[in-house]
Q: What sequence folds into this?
């Protein structure tokens, strides 16, 4: 398959973070013509990797100044909407960050919209939140599709379930969109680890570490493999950031926040030592290859990868877009797309 199927297509990257959407689309030939991200540390990482400085606060961006584009990407935050009663769409979105996505969509009318949010987004505010998103986009002329996907099913050793959304402009004539199913590839945390000499500073040494030695012995003896996180011990009382997991399972969900000795990454028993994951290991379990530059502090890197989107999941969604002949043909038919 030609790896540049999206040559000539333009996209914008809103709530861009460190550029997961950018990576997934650029590798297939699409060009990023605009990005927005308010966090200055994430802006630095984005610039260092893509030579593009994202604009700041999206609420202050004039939608008229946003360049024309075929695809709009947005990993906007989850917020409750103020349901107005008779209204259930565009008007209800006002006052939220999704409204800033909607006003750009309203002005620029991209053909395709790709979005991501936390797993709770489907149930948030008793289902009203995603309903407002769907109704808003419907009012603006789009069909809306969404599903829940876990990065564990896409060859990444991290349990990270997220809601992925695709909106397609109605006039394109696309009557359905199928999300990828993933594949149960055998992969575990041990597959992506750095050498011990590169992770010494992440070792946790405390007196209140408790390990299930019988379970650890059984895992080692029988060479057991787990396709989800496998807990083998605790630190202190086993609260947030105090649970210890096996390197022969998957990592827990990376987080931008959270406390405890394993804050943001979780704690793992690796080669007989208890430690956090290094930023490069966090990059790997999010699907960023080793060419991706990490030029911020460890603390900022942990936060950035905890906020990011698994690139391999996006890769597969982009692949489904390419395989949808009606959709890909329509994307290529645009007066500002040059071939």
A:
């Amino acid at each position: 398959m030609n790896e540049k199927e999206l040559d000539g297509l333009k996209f914008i990257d809103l709530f861009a973070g460190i550029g997961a959407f950018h990576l997934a689309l650029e590798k297939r030939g699409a060009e990023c013509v605009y990005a927005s991200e308010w966090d200055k540390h994430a802006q630095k990482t984005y610039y260092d990797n893509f030579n593009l400085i994202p604009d700041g606060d999206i609420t202050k961006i004039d939608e008229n100044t946003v360049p024309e584009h075929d695809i709009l990407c947005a990993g906007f935050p989850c917020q409750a909407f103020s349901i107005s009663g008779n209204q259930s769409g565009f008007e209800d979105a006002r006052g939220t960050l999704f409204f800033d996505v909607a006003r750009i969509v309203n002005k620029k009318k991209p053909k395709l919209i790709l979005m991501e949010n936390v797993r709770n987004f489907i149930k948030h505010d008793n289902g009203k939140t995603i309903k407002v998103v769907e109704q808003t986009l419907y009012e603006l002329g789009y069909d809306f599709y969404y599903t829940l996907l876990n990065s564990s099913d896409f060859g990444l050793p991290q349990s990270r379930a997220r809601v992925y959304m695709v909106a397609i402009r109605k006039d394109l004539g696309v009557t359905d969109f199928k999300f990828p199913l993933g594949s149960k590839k055998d992969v575990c945390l041990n597959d992506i680890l750095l050498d011990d000499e590169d992770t010494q500073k992440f070792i946790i040494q405390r007196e209140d570490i408790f390990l299930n030695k019988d379970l650890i012995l059984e895992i080692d003896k029988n060479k057991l493999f787990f396709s989800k996180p496998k807990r083998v011990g605790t630190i202190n009382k086993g609260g947030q950031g105090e649970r210890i997991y096996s390197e022969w399972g998957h990592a827990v969900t990376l987080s931008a926040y959270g406390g405890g000795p394993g804050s943001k990454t979780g704690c793992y028993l690796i080669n007989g030592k208890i430690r956090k994951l290094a930023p490069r290991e966090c990059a790997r379990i999010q699907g960023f290859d080793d060419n991706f530059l990490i030029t911020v502090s460890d603390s900022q890197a942990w936060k950035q990868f905890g906020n990011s989107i698994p690139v391999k999941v996006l890769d597969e969604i982009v692949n489904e877009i390419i395989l949808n002949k009606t959709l890909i043909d329509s994307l290529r038919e645009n007066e500002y797309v040059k071939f």
